[in-house]
Amino acid sequence: MQDVVLEMKVCILCFGFQAQNINRQPWRYIFELAKNFIADGIDAKVISNGTAVPPFAQVDGVTIRYVDTSDRMLQGSRETLAVLQEENPDAIIVLIGLLGLLKRKPRLGKPTIAILTSPIYDAGEVLRVALPELLKHTKLVCTHLLEAILPRIALKRGAKFFDRIIVLSARNRTRLASRGLSLETVDLVKPGIREEDLVLPSCSEVEAVNAEVAPDGVPIVLYFGAPLTLRGTDTLIQAFAEVADTIPSRLVIMSRIDDASSIKEHGMLQKMVESHGLTDRVVLKSAFLSPGEMKKHICAASIVCLPFKLVTSDVPITILEAMALGKPIVSTCLDGIPELLEGRGIVVTPGRHKELAKAIINMISNSEANKRLGEHARDFMLTYPRWQTQSHEILAMIEKIVSRRSCEVKP
């Protein structure tokens, strides 16, 4: 790696950073960043909220130091400030949402970079979410609504604290500009992929999954991830009821169960399947699958369907994973998804099950077009940035800021 200071210490402030979260956004981004920093000789440490005793942990070589404070106060609490003063890093990276621009900042006079991983919605996009979702996910939906109506002057004032602001999608960068922020300080550094994400399972392994979930040989529509209706799982079942009436097919939902609410929503999906008379056409799985096993299910699918109503991170990892394996995807026109799937998948309006059903039917019915979409997705991902490349870009950014600061303090 060139033009990067190797003798450097970087602290990364990130709420909720735990071992069980590192394959999910936004923690995946921070984990890969820290891991690659360390591989390049940087003394990198993640500072997160928690009450672990002792207050240190290791996750695959990445050191986490826990601070006894809430995730809401992690960025600007006295406890966090004391830890940063003790660590005395050369630079600080802070994971934020848009509201984070308004919160108290760790004022240590150190170069500070913000990573904005959450999408920027307008009020209409948030209010499009149905009332039941608002009741189930009040905190998340209200946060996005508050961010949608933040005054431009407040955002501009808050952004001045950071030397740079990193976003994960071109759309977020454009929306920050529309809110009055100067693009001179906003950088696009997309999430990367790992080389192993591109490794395909064997044909025999894929055939075994096909024989298990679709022994009759019908096309498979796959959803994988948390079973939350905010991710469009209920819309998908409604849409598939129309698909099943039109074309022989099978829907497979691979639920990632994270907590009690996931268990509850998985049960609700089961009831929806029964009420639509789809018990013999829908497979609901909630068992934990290793990344290798998940790959087999993705490759066995005819299409992957991820019909999000809202996304918590502007570039969902699930979409990158499916594209890397050459799967055609139907998703929704939210945040960074359209720029990923342009010419490589289909996007529809969130929450519109008839529109989704039509897209699924068209994709299943046109096997040649479907195959081309998958090939284009795979080709795109073969040249897509790797995590190491992205971390190098951020390190070079830090070096430039540190160097500039050093020149400013010289007499």
Description:
The protein is α/β, with parallel strands linked by helices and 411 residues long. It has two domains: 9-192 and 385-409, Glycogen Phosphorylase B (Rossmann fold), CATH 3.40.50.2000; 195-382, Glycogen Phosphorylase B (Rossmann fold). The protein is built from 16 helices and 14 strands. The chain has helices spanning 27-39, 78-87, 123-127, 131-136, 138-148, 152-159, 170-178, 203-213, 233-246, 260-275, 291-300, 317-324, 337-341, 353-365, 367-382, 387-409, and strands at residues 9-13, 43-49, 56-59, 62-67, 91-96, 112-116, 164-167, 186-188, 220-225, 250-255, 282-285, 303-306, 329-332, 345-348. The chain has an eight-stranded mixed β-sheet. Strands 11-10-9-12-13-14 form a six-stranded parallel β-sheet, sandwiched between helices. Strand 10 (250-255), helix 10 and strand 11 form a beta-alpha-beta unit. The longest helix is centred in the last third of the chain and has 23 residues, at 387-409. The protein is globular, with a radius of gyration of 22 Å.
